[in-house]
């Protein structure tokens, strides 16, 4: 019997793969049963049906690890509820490494597993051979065993989710193509199909390979592109153990899974080609792509060496299926920044089966509760710039994401494709002075500078590199003389109008009733008392303010501010990031330098901390504000792009006189960690409250206009719940920290490193961390106890502080 298309629904889900069915199931489980799922052809017919079905609980970040772990936790419940098997087999997994660097990476993953109570341990040749007798151990340095990993049948899992959703009242309509998502006044109002209109206030785009095109129709950017992805299935292998673990050999770019008496051999490709450059074919349904030998033969040869039985075994199936990959290796999960009620779950980079249940739950919880219930900032749609969702960009970047999936991921490693897109006015001048550029949202930003006569080519390692010394020298100059960094990519948003002050009072925690020429640091909270952003706000006149954000938050902060404007308010908000170039000049001799190139007074009396004014540098007028992310005396200079190089040349003409050194982002990161200055998206996001990160001092709950989230913030502050942000440094000067390392107190895991660097000032690796607190524990006693940090399997003694280790009274900053 044909099911009729309903005229209305609370939620319409578009796409019937594992993600769409997971969202449907979890919405129904939370009590929202007036839900319709629309599938253009048949359930699982896009990517889900041909996924390899590997299940690895330990992922590269905490969010994905949570998603993957949850996916294994609900299997028994799902099977019991539906009677549908999912094909889950917890066979464990063995990962082998050929190279020392890979073993270092794997040891750090073993450390990381401690944070989630996932059993993972290093194993040698004897145990590898015992667990996986088919493997050739020639050239293998060692391995890792994770017993909770395994595999699952993707179609069976999706069928179970769909069956459970149906049993709870969800309508699932196959062969129903969505023609249009209807948006009116910035809100979803309906979905038009060939069979009629469904009125709804919430749409979830889980359309897989089609998600980008579907989103594009409404101006929603979904940065993913399909790529050809290969695996093969052998003929039956006599006496093949059915409980054989999954074997991964990242250095050979291969994985092996027992599959009904056969081996499924998959490839982490080195040669990757995009698929569907002109769009995914209309009739695509359970389709496969042509098998092109040269795309995989080099990897296949390595697979036959690693598992020699393949040399005597026939191939039953060579399979090439399209899978979607994103521009940055992260999914897109959350509400679209410009359309209320338009949610996205897409671009999870070949981990959809592992993470689908957890990601679907996260979207369902957001819809039901009206806000995200966990930190989804790293996968937020609001992080995406328009150019990152265009076809030309994705056809370069998405294949690189797939090619890097099994590659070594070194600290500070940069992408190579689609570079040089956004250059500041100082790019060429900085390149001529030895800049090695990193990339942030397309901006080319110096990460460090090679000395004169040295080529700016990085070494990649988990140990000290040649650029390690360069970064230390940059830190030293900033602490002893003058450092200068290009601030042009920083987000800059103008807020102007008669009601601008009242508007900022409402959205900012600090008191914004400041005089022109003053600058304040402030937080922006959400209704739950979580931190949406931290920004600096400069008042230029009675009706004009300039809000400064970090590079990565520009669009997110702009969108959030636009959303908060009330009808009838005289407030105009516009992005002026590219209207101004910027330089941050800091260090104990920065005042003397600026005084030497300007007729203006930079003394402490005339130019106190948190003030700003127009000054002249050389022949150029600049807006200068006295702030510093380095913790040193410092000034930020903003000028129109046409004067940027002149200002830069004017300063650098005094290079030898004042000991100026150009500073990159790696050195600045170390300097700000010395001071325990936070970075939103790394040290905190919208789930943390100000009291957790020591920022109560910028929250003014008694100001005339209450700030958004005030009551929730006060409640959370009174509850004094953790975890709490602290600074940490290693007592041993040799080990390096890169973030994610577990922290132990008296032998028990109590937190992890969030930001990390090697501090020239402290002479050791240091970082910022979130530490768990016990009920009723006073913050002042948090630093007590014996702390260690796990670094490649070794506990390194560490010291914890409630404040930054460098200049805790900010005497240098305020000098």
CATH architecture of the domain at 11-86 and 153-225 and 328-383: 3-Layer(bba) Sandwich
Provide the CATH top-level class of the domain at 11-86 and 153-225 and 328-383: Alpha Beta
- Cα shape: globular
Class based on secondary structure composition and strand pairing = alpha+beta
Radius of gyration based on Cα positions: 27 Å
Family: Belongs to the GcvT family.
Pfam family, one: GCV_T_C
InterPro entries: FAD-dep_OxRdtase, FAD/NAD-bd_sf, FAO_M, GcvT/YgfZ/DmdA, GcvT/YgfZ_C, GcvT_C, GCVT_N, TrmE/GcvT-like
Domain Aminomethyltransferase C-terminal: 725-807
Verbal overview:
Residues 725-807 form the Aminomethyltransferase C-terminal domain. Residues 369-423 form the FAD dependent oxidoreductase central domain. Belongs to the GcvT family. The protein has 815 residues and is α+β, with helices and mostly antiparallel strands. Among the domains are: 11-86 and 153-225 and 328-383, FAD/NAD(P)-binding domain, CATH 3.50.50.60; 93-143 and 226-319, D-Amino Acid Oxidase, Chain A, domain 2 (2-Layer Sandwich); 491-579, Aminomethyltransferase beta-barrel domains (Alpha-Beta Plaits, 2-Layer Sandwich), CATH 3.30.70; 720-815, Elongation Factor Tu (Ef-tu), domain 3 (Beta Barrel). Helices cover 25% and strands 27% of the residues. The protein contains 19 helices and 38 strands. The strands form eight sheets. An eight-stranded mixed sheet has the order 5-6-4-14-15-16-13-17. It has a six-stranded mixed sheet with strand order 8-2-1-12-19-18. α1 runs parallel beside α6 (154-167), α1 (18-29) packs parallel to α9 (352-369) and α3 (75-82) crosses α6. The chain is globular, with a radius of gyration of 27 Å. The termini are far apart.
């Amino acid at each position: 019997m044909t099911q009729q298309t309903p005229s209305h629904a609370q939620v319409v889900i578009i796409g019937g793969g594992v993600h769409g069915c997971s969202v449907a199931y979890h919405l129904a489980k939370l009590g929202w049963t007036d839900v319709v799922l629309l599938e253009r052809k048949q359930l699982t017919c896009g990517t889900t049906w041909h996924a390899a079905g590997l299940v690895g609980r330990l992922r590269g970040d905490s969010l994905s690890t949570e998603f993957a772990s949850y996916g294994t936790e609900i299997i028994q419940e799902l099977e019991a509820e539906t009677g549908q098997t999912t094909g889950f087999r917890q066979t464990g997994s063995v990962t082998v490494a050929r190279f020392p660097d890979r073993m270092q990476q794997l040891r750090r993953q073993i450390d990381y597993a401690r944070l989630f109570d996932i059993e993972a341990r290093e194993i040698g040749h004897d145990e590898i051979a015992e667990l996986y007798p088919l493997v050739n151990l020639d050239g293998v340095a060692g391995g890792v065993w994770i017993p909770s990993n395994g595999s699952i049948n993707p179609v069976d899992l999706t069928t179970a989710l769909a069956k459970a959703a149906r049993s709870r009242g969800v309508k699932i309509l196959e062969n129903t193509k969505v023609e249009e998502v209807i948006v009116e006044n910035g809100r979803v109002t309906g979905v038009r199909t060939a069979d009629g209109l469904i009125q709804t206030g919430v749409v979830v785009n889980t359309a897989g390979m089609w998600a980008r095109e579907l989103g594009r129709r409404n101006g929603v950017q979904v940065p993913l592109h399909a790529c050809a992805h290969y695996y093969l299935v052998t003929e039956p292998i006599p006496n093949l153990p059915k409980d054989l673990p999954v074997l991964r050999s990242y250095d050979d770019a291969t994985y092996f899974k027992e599959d009904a008496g056969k081996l499924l051999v998959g490839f982490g490709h080195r040669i990757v080609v995009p698929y569907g450059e002109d769009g995914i074919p209309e009739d695509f349904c359970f389709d496969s792509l042509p098998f092109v030998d040269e795309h995989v033969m080099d990897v296949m040869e390595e697979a036959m060496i690693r598992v020699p039985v393949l040399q005597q075994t026939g191939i039953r199936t060579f399979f090439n299926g399209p899978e979607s990959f994103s521009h940055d290796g992260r999914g897109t999960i959350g509400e679209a920044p410009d359309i209320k009620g338009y949610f996205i779950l897409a671009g999870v980079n070949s981990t959809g089966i592992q993470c689908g249940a957890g990601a679907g739950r996260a979207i369902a919880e957001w819809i039901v509760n009206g806000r995200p219930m966990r930190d989804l900032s790293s996968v937020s749609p609001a992080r995406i710039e328009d150019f990152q969702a265009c076809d030309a960009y994705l056809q370069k970047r998405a294949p690189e994401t797939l090619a890097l999936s099994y590659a070594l991921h070194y600290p500070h490693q940069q992408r190579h494709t689609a570079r040089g897109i956004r250059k500041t006015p100082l790019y060429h001048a900085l390149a001529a002075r030895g800049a090695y550029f990193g990339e942030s949202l397309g901006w080319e930003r110096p990460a460090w500078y090679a000395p004169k006569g040295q080529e700016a080519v990085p070494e990649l390692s988990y140990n000290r590199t040649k650029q390690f010394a360069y970064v230390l020298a940059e830190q030293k100059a900033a602490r002893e003389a003058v450092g200068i960094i290009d601030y042009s990519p920083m987000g800059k948003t103008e807020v102007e109008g008669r009601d601008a002050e009242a508007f900022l009072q409402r959205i900012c925690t600090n008191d914004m009733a400041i005089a022109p020429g003053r600058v304040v640091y402030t937080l922006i909270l959400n209704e739950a008392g979580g931190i949406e952003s931290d920004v600096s706000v400069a008042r230029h006149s009675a009706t004009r303010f300039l809000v400064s954000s970090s590079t990565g938050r520009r669009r997110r902060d702009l969108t959030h501010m636009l959303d908060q404007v009330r009808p009838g308010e005289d407030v105009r908000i516009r992005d002026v990031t590219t209207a101004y170039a910027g330089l941050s000049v800091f260090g104990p001799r920065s005042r003397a330098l600026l005084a030497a190139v300007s007729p203006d007074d930079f003394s402490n009396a005339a130019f106190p901390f948190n003030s700003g004014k127009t000054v002249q540098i050389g022949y150029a007028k600049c807006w200068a504000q006295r702030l510093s992310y380095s913790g040193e005396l410092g000034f930020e200079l903003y000028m129109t792009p046409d004067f940027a190089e002149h200002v830069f040349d004017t300063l650098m003409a005094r290079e030898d006189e004042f000991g100026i050194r150009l500073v990159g982002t790696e050195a600045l990161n170390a300097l700000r960690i010395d001071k325990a200055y936070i970075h939103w998206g790394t040290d905190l996001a919208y789930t943390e409250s100000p009291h957790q990160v020591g920022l109560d001092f910028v929250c003014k709950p008694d100001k005339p206009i209450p700030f958004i989230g005030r009551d929730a913030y006060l409640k959370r502050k009174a509850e004094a719940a953790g975890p709490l942000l602290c600074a940490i440094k290693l007592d041993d000067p040799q080990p390096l920290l890169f973030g994610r390392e577990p922290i132990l107190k008296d032998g028990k895991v109590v937190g992890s490193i969030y930001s990390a660097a090697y501090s020239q000032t402290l002479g050791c690796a240091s970082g910022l961390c979130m530490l768990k607190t016990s009920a009723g524990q006073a913050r002042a006693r948090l630093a007590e106890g014996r702390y260690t940090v796990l670094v490649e399997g070794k506990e390194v003694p560490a010291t914890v502080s409630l404040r930054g280790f460098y200049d805790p009274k900010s005497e240098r900053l305020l000098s």
